[in-house]
Amino acid sequence: MRAGRDFSERAIIPRPRDFPVPPRDPPIPPLLQALRPHQWTKNLAIFVGILFAHFAGQLNDSSVLAPVVLLFVAFCLASSCVYLLNDIADREEDARHPVKRHRAIASGRLSLGAAKVAAFVCATAALAIAWFLPRAPRITRLDLPAGIAVLVPYLVLNVAYSAFLKRVVIADVTCVAIGFLIRVVSGPKVANVAVSSWLILCTFFGALFLACAKRRGELLVTEGGDGGRSVLQKYSDRVLDLLVAIAATCTLLCYAIYTVSPETVAKFKTDHLLYTVPFVFLGLGRYLLLLYRRKSGEDPARVLFTDPGMLLAIAGWLSSCWAASALTP
């Protein structure tokens, strides 16, 4: 009987993993978390056109890099402003999300007043940096610095996105893709470097792929419930799967055409850039695997720069790009 009582008592004692584990506060201050510095990696898109110009041997004057680096800093500040405004607008929806409820504003660890002040400071600092960038080259009819000409449309687009466009199905992911497109075009514009139209199209569809995959990942995490963005209720699994497939296909095709286009061959003086295409396919395939098998597509920045398979694809692509240009006779 003693053994039976011991067994019964042991049987009803909950195991440690049966207890709900409260989420730990991030080891960073709430304001820094709300600024999302890990998302600044998206602004590295500014250097994509510069990188290809370097591989093609067209970047002879390294002094043009200083304005591009300052533009990168301005975009980081501007994107932090956008994230703050977005979190302020979405705080009620985020509070119902299984992951986003731990964000600084949604959880109440950062007050609305402090968040608004921080957003204003970030926007002001970003515009100030952009204003003092060189006025040449002129990319509009207005006598404005090139940095202002690219940063203001980015801020206007994202303010409109936070205000209402993020609730419009399809328009939400299109706005995200256009935001990436502005980044990619802005770097070469400030440095006065030409960018291939095929590379611009590839960037747009690549950003559209990441945006649609992010929506699909959010739908997988919330399992179709109401704990996510309100726009998710207007999507369906099949529609998002089709959009992800279309965007991935267009990304691969546009990049492949870019590598063999006469303009690219003339610029690089070789057609060896086509050997970088397999690494683009590897990256897209790996991302799709992580999205559907591991439900890891909700945060593209973390997936791109923490997953070993994605890092392998990126390293292989960079190495093959360098080899295609450096080993050309």
Write the layout of secondary structure elements.
Elements: H1 2-12, H2 30-35, H3 48-55, H4 65-89, H5 91-95, H6 112-131, H7 146-163, H8 171-191, H9 197-222, H10 237-260, H11 262-268, H12 277-293, H13 300-306, H14 308-326
Q: Please bin the fraction of helical residues.
A: 55-70%
Proportion of residues in extended strands:
under 5%
- The helix/strand order is HHHHHHHHHHHHHH
Main pleated-sheet profile = none
The N- and C-terminal alpha carbons lie at a distance of 88 Å
Structural class: mainly alpha
Q: Round the Cα radius of gyration to an integer and report it.
A: 23 Å
Q: In short, what is this structure?
A:
This protein is mainly alpha-helical and 329 residues long. It contains 14 helices and no strands. Helix 6 runs antiparallel to helix 7 (146-163).
How does this model look, in words?
There is one protein chain. The chain is mainly alpha-helical and 329 residues long. The protein has 2 domains: 28-195, Tetracycline Repressor, domain 2; 197-322. 65% of the residues lie in helices and 0% in strands. It has 14 helices and no strands. The chain has helices at residues 2-12, 30-35, 48-55, 65-89, 91-95, 112-131, 146-163, 171-191, 197-222, 237-260, 262-268, 277-293, 300-306, 308-326. The longest helix is centred in the middle third of the chain and has 26 residues, at 197-222.
Features:
single chain, 2 domains, mainly alpha, Tetracycline Repressor, domain 2
